[in-house]
Specification:
Blueprint: E1 8-9, E2 12-14, E3 23-31, E4 42-53, E5 62-68, E6 78-81, E7 86-91, E8 99-107, E9 112-121, E10 137-140, E11 143-146, H1 167-172, E12 178-180, E13 189-191, H2 193-196, E14 216-217, H3 221-233, H4 248-251, E15 285-286, E16 292-293, E17 298-308, E18 311-318, E19 325-330, E20 340-341
Antiparallel strand pairs: 1-3, 2-3, 3-4, 4-7, 5-6, 5-8, 8-9, 10-11, 12-13, 14-20, 15-16, 17-18, 18-19
């Protein structure tokens, strides 16, 4: 965003009846930085001051802001009329992720005057999933987590994340990709670690893309740790205790898991699952060689933390366990993804 503080000062001299007392009209218009920008609104700010000597301005003076998606907007474009010296107004109904141009303006019988131009871009729509709806989320203590798996197929700038179905091609990848479990479009999407880190080509000098929606990020191990400690301390263990880690059932969905006879395991008495609302689904994952495994047996979630050059950490909820477990394996794996708010 440009923060130009140019002053548009115009001197208008007009002959009065007494040539010894000419009209001197000096408007100074400053368009200031736009603030409070959202997907569909923004606040325009500016200063308009006028020095006038021996001038008569007829009724009909108008001042405020003009704005447009094209540079150098005029009163033929969108007009917001605001009177005063320090002026500010919030405009609505903007198009998301769109560049706009703004100028303070003043018009009257003497002339039509404009301040410096400021541009801004409305925010992209954040947290929109593959169905066009906002990812649902829940606040857990000091954190807010999405409670549905990521399923978008582009980075935030619109760059596509490739879908890869072939096992051999999947194994060779060192860049971002996704697939449906079993390459079945009725099943959830899985991502390799390169995708969640925005690694979209093989040039190490290319900046990474953003995978998470604006205002969110893929959780690291410390984020997951905060969530686990919150759930334990607030009685989400399957037996209601607030020590040890037995929160698996509270995080797991109420159906779809392989059955278990172990009391407190996620797969045992599944109707008691999901008391936290986290709704982890046992969608399985894709191995580094491209094979699909663990459907019904586990929910696996990426961490943003690498372990080694080609390995990274991930969290597993298993149907036969009551405790989330941490593992490290190839970045080529296809796992589920959740987001935590910045």
């Amino acid at each position: 965003m440009k923060k130009l503080l140019l002053l548009c000062t115009l001197l208008i001299f007009a002959c009065a009846e007494n040539e010894d007392n000419p009209c001197i009209y000096t408007p100074t218009l400053t368009t200031e930085a736009v603030t409070d920008i959202t997907e569909t609104s923004a606040t325009l700010n500016g200063i308009i001051s006028v020095v006038s000597e021996n001038c008569e301005v007829a009724p009909g003076e108008m001042q405020g802001f003009v704005y447009s998606t094209n540079p150098s907007p005029t009163i033929d474009d969108n007009v917001e009329v605001i009177y005063g010296t320090n002026i500010s107004t919030t405009i609505e109904s903007l198009e998301p992720n769109t560049a706009y141009y703004v100028r303070a303006f003043l018009t009257n019988t003497i002339g039509e005057f404009y301040g410096n131009e400021v541009d801004f871009r409305s925010k992209a729509i954040a947290s929109v999933n593959c169905d066009g709806a906002v990812y649902p989320s829940i606040v857990y203590g000091t954190q807010e987590w999405t409670v549905a798996n990521a399923c978008h197929i582009t980075y935030t700038d619109g760059t596509p994340i490739p879908q890869v179905t072939d096992d051999a091609e999947w194994y060779q990848l060192t860049t971002g990709a996704w697939s449906y479990y079993n390459n079945d479009p009725t099943k959830p999407r899985l991502y390799n670690w390169y995708a969640i880190m925005g690694i979209h080509d093989t040039d190490p000098n290319t900046p990474n893309k953003e995978f998470a929606p604006e205002g969110w990020h893929v959780p690291g191990g410390s984020d997951w740790g905060v969530l686990e400690r919150y759930l334990i301390a607030n009685g989400y263990n399957h037996d209601g205790t607030t020590t040890e880690n037995k929160i698996g059932k509270s995080m797991a969905s109420i159906a779809g898991w392989n059955s278990s006879t172990t009391t407190g395991a996620i797969g045992n008495d599944q109707g008691l699952n999901n008391s936290s609302g986290f709704n982890a689904l046992p969608v399985g994952d894709r191995s580094y060689i491209g094979r699909f495994v663990r459907e019904g047996g586990g929910a696996t979630f990426w961490s943003s933390n690498p372990y080694y050059t080609t390995y990274a950490w991930y969290l597993v909820l298993g149907s036969a366990s009551s405790e989330p477990s941490w593992f490290k394996n190839s970045m080529k794996q296809g796992l589920s993804v959740r987001f935590v708010k910045d």
